[in-house]
Amino acid sequence: MATTIDDVARAAGVSTSTVSYVLSGKRPISAPTRQRVERAIRELGYRPHAGARALASSRTNVLALMAPLRVDVNVSVIMQFVTGVVTAARTFDHDVLLLTADEIAGMERVANGSMVDALVMMDIEADDPRVPVLAGLSQPAVLIGLPRDPEGLSCVDLDFEAAGHLAARHLARLGHRQIALLGSPQAVLDRHTSYAERMIRGFTRGTSDAGVTGVVEPCESSMAGAVDAVDRVLAALPDVTGLVVHNEVALPWVLATLRERGRHVPDDVSVVAVCPPDVAVGQALPLTNVDIPAHAIGRVAVEMAMARVERSEPAETRLLAPMLVERASTVAPVR
Amino acid sequence: MATTIDDVARAAGVSTSTVSYVLSGKRPISAPTRQRVERAIRELGYRPHAGARALASSRTNVLALMAPLRVDVNVSVIMQFVTGVVTAARTFDHDVLLLTADEIAGMERVANGSMVDALVMMDIEADDPRVPVLAGLSQPAVLIGLPRDPEGLSCVDLDFEAAGHLAARHLARLGHRQIALLGSPQAVLDRHTSYAERMIRGFTRGTSDAGVTGVVEPCESSMAGAVDAVDRVLAALPDVTGLVVHNEVALPWVLATLRERGRHVPDDVSVVAVCPPDVAVGQALPLTNVDIPAHAIGRVAVEMAMARVERSEPAETRLLAPMLVERASTVAPVR
DNA sequence: GGGAAGCGTCGAAGCGCTTCGCCAGCGTAG
DNA sequence: CTACGCTGGCGAAGCGCTTCGACGCTTCCC
Asked: What is the C-alpha to C-alpha distance for residues B195 and B217, in angstroms, rounded to an integer?
C-alpha cells in the first residue's frame, strides 16, 4: 500500500523520473522500458500519492461542484446535474468535491487551498453573490445558469427562453388560443433565478408571436400551491385549453387538480411539461414534454471547465437547444 | 494568492515551524507571537496548500462519500443523507469527495491514492461487493446500512426492524386487525438491501405479536406499480383497514389509488408512511409517519468515521431508534 | 566525415508543509 | 553560585512527486 514511485523505479531498474514520464506520457519512453515500468506498477499495485502529485504539479485532478440543495428546487433534476458532472469528470480523470452549504466560504477554501482545478456552480441567480468572488480565484469556473451579466464567464444552460417559446408555439400550432404557463415558485422568481425569468420571456414571446392569449402564474412546489395556481389560471382564463407546467414537484398535483376541476387531459386541456422524460412518462398519462437535459448540461459544464484548465480556452456561454417530445397529453382542441 | 507559510513566517518575524504550530496548536506558542502570526495570516490572506499538507501530515481532511444514485432508490432521502454527511463533515473541518458510479474502482482509487481520510458508503446490500474491498484499504469506512455480517465494521442505520414493528403495533393498538405493508420495489429486495428485509421482519413480528393479520407486498416506484400493489393488497386482504407504506416515491400514487378504489383515508383505511416528515405532511392529508432521519444518520456516520480517524476508536454498529409521529391518517377503525 | 539534431534516460532541485530534535534563556532549588 | 528543568522558538529533514537541464548515443544531411 505504501509503495512509492521509487519502489516502482527500483523494481523496474529505472530512475524515478522515467517512471513519472511513463505515467504522464510527457516524454517519449521506449517500449521495452515502458513495459518494464508498467509491469512493476501492476505488480506492486502502485498508486501515485494525490497530495504529492498536486504539490509538485499544481494540478489536483479534482473539481468542485457547488450544488445548492435548497428545499424549493427539484431534487431529482439536481441529482441528474450532479451525476452528469461526476461521470463527465471521471472521463477527464477527475474526482468531484461536493460543496453545499456555506458556499462563498467553501469556494474560497477549496480554491485558495489548491484543492481543486476548477469549480462548477449550479443554480445561478441574476445577481449571484458567488460570481464576484470568482474574480479573486486562480481557478476557472463554469456556471450552470446565467447571471445578469455573463460577460467573460463560462456559462451553460438549457435555452429556457427557446424552451418557453417552443412550448407555447407547440400549443398554438395545435390550435389552442388560450394558454397558460404554470411556472416556478415565487421564491425562485424573487431570487431572480434566471431560468425562470427566461422561461417566462420565451413563453410570452411565443404567445404574442402566435397571436394567442397567454397568462403566467407562479406555482409553489406543494399540493396547496398547485391547487391554488391551477385555480388562479382557471379564474384568469376560464376557457384555457393549453397548459405549460414548469415545476416538476407540482406537476402531479396540477394534473390531479385539473381532474378534480373537471378538466380532462388532453380532451379539455393539453399539457406540456418542462421536465426530464422520466418524470413526463411517469405520470398517469404520458406527457408531452420539453426536456431538461440535466445530465447533458452537467457534462458540458465539465467539458468547458476542462477546456479552460487544460488548454486555457477562453470563457464562453453555451445554451443548449430545447427539444419537445410529443406524447399523449397534447392534442388539437375539440371545437 | 500564492502566499506560502514562509511568507507568513517572514511577515511575522518567526520561523515557519512556529507558524505551523500556531495553525495546528500542537505545541504551545506564547500569546504575543501567536497574535503576530495570526495577524500576518489574516493580512496576507494565507491558506495552507492542501496537497502539501496532505503530503507532510498524511491527513487530507477529505472524506469520500459513496452514494449509489440508482434509479429505484428515493432521491430526496438520498439527498438528505448527502447533506447530513456534508454538513457534519464540515464541523470536523473536512470536505466531501463524491463517488457515484464505478464504486469499487473509485474507492480503491481515492483510498490508495491517499485522497481521503475515511469512506462513508451508502445503500449497503447484504452481500455488498464493496465490503470485502474495505479490508485492503488503510482508511476506515462507515457503512450506512447493514451487510449480512457487520462484525468488525462501522455501521449506522435506522433500526428498520424496530420501525416495522412500531408501525404495525401502532395500527394494531388502534384496533386494526388486518394490516398490510407496501414495501420496497422487488429490485431492492432482490439486491437484499438490508433495510427492506429488516422492515419486513419487524412488521411481521409486529403483526404476530399483536395477533393481527398482516400481509407484505413489494411495490414498484411508479404509478403503475403503486396501483398494482394496492390492488394486490386489496385482493389478498379485502377487509384491510391499515396500511404501512415504505416507499416515498409510490406514496402519492398509493393514496390516489386508494381513493379511486373507494377507500377513504383515514375513515376506511389508516395509513402509516415510513418517510421523512416533509414528505408525510406534503400529501393531501398529513400522514402519520415513522421518520427516516436521513440527516441524522449522515451526521452519525461522519462522527463515527472521525472517531476512528482521530482517536482510532474501534468499529461499532449503531441503530437509531425509530420515532412515530401521529397525524391525521391513522384512526381507530369504524366498526 | 563531421556537425547538427533527435532520442531515451537520468539526476537533482524543488513544490509547501509537518514534525522531531535541539537550544537559548529563564526561574528555581540545592 | 551552579545545576536543572521548563518554556518558547528555531532549523532541517523529509513527505512523494514532477520537471528541467544535461548527457550519451544514434541518425541524418550536406
From this structure: 15
Residues of chain B with pLDDT under 50: none
B21: which nucleotide lies closest, measuring CA to C1'?
C18
What gap in Å lies between CA A326 and CA A180, rounded to an integer?
18
Across A76-104, average pLDDT: 91
pLDDT surpasses 80 at A140: yes
Determine contact, residues B106/B63, Cβ cutoff 8 Å: no
The pLDDT, as a whole number, for residue B275 is 94
Residues of B in contact with A83 (CB under 8 A): 69, 100-101
- Protein residues in reach of strand D (CB < 7 A): A 2, 4-6, 16-17, 20-21, 23-24, 26, 46-49, 52-53, 55-57; B 13-18, 21, 27-30, 32-34, 52, 55-56
Q: What is the amino acid identity at position A280? A: A
Confidence of residue A196 (pLDDT cuts 50, 70, 90): very high
Cβ atoms of residues A64 and B84 within 8 Å? no
Order the strands of the B154-158 sheet from edge to edge: A317-320, A154-158, A141-144, A118-121, A62-66, A95-99, B95-99, B62-66, B118-121, B141-144, B154-158, B317-320
Q: Is there a contact between A196 and A149 (Cβ–Cβ < 8 Å)?
A: no
Residue A231: pLDDT band by 50, 70, 90 thresholds?
A: very high
Rg (CA), chain B: 25
Phi-psi region of B176 (alpha: psi -120 to 50; beta: other; left: phi over 0): beta
For residue B38, the Cα-to-chain-centroid distance in whole angstroms is 39
Which H/E stretch holds residue A252?
helix A251-260
Q: Measured in angstroms, what separates residue A46's CA from nucleotide D18's C1'?
A: 17
Overall average pLDDT of the A156-180 stretch: 97
Domains of chain B: 5-48 (1.10.260.40), 62-158+294-320 (3.40.50.2300), 160-291 (3.40.50.2300)
Burial of A257 (0-12, 13-18, 19+ CB in 10 A): buried
How are beta strands A95-99 and B95-99 bridged, if at all? Answer: antiparallel
pLDDT, tens digit, 9 for 90 and up, residues B104-118 = 999 999 999 999 999
**Cα within 13 Å of Cα(A222), Cβ side:** 16
Residues 6 or more apart from B42 whose CB is under 8 A from it?
A: none
Rounded to an integer, the average pLDDT of A269-282 is 93
Of B242, B246, B253, the C-alpha closest to B275 is B246
CA distance A183 to A180: 9
C-alpha cell at B38: 495570526
